[in-house]
Amino acid sequence: MIAVSEPTYEQARAELREIVTKLESGGQSLEESLALWERGEVLADICQKWLDGATARLDAAIAEHDAPSD
């Protein structure tokens, strides 16, 4: 089985933008629209995971910087 790597934040956001544009323009069948929506949900989750990870790293760096030195 081939492992599929998760897109970067920027890749996921770019694809999500494309999907939103397609959905807003209309013209797709209901089935196509649902498939686009489902892919958009996956991409939104990926973006949120990246953002949560970045927030955690920043919080850790701030905590380390603010920790009293011995």
Walk me through this protein's architecture.
By secondary structure, the chain is mostly helical. The chain has a domain at 36-64. 77% of the residues lie in helices and 0% in strands. The protein has two helices and no strands. α1 packs antiparallel against α2. The model has no long low-confidence stretch (mean pLDDT 92).
SSE blueprint:
Blueprint: H1 9-25, H2 30-66
Helix pairs in contact: 1-2
Class based on secondary structure composition and strand pairing: mainly alpha
Shape: rod-shaped
Distance between the termini: 51 Å
Largest sheet: none
**Strand portion:** under 5%
> Cα-atom Rg, whole angstroms?
18 Å
Write down the oligomeric state. Answer: single chain
**Mean pLDDT reading:** 92
What proportion of the residues is helical, as a percent range?
over 70%
Write the H/E string, N to C: HH
Our count of helices gives 2
List the uncertain runs: none
Number of extended strands: 0
In a few lines, what is going on in this structure?
This protein has 70 residues and is an all-alpha fold. It is built from 2 helices and no strands.
Distinctive features:
70 residues; 2 helices
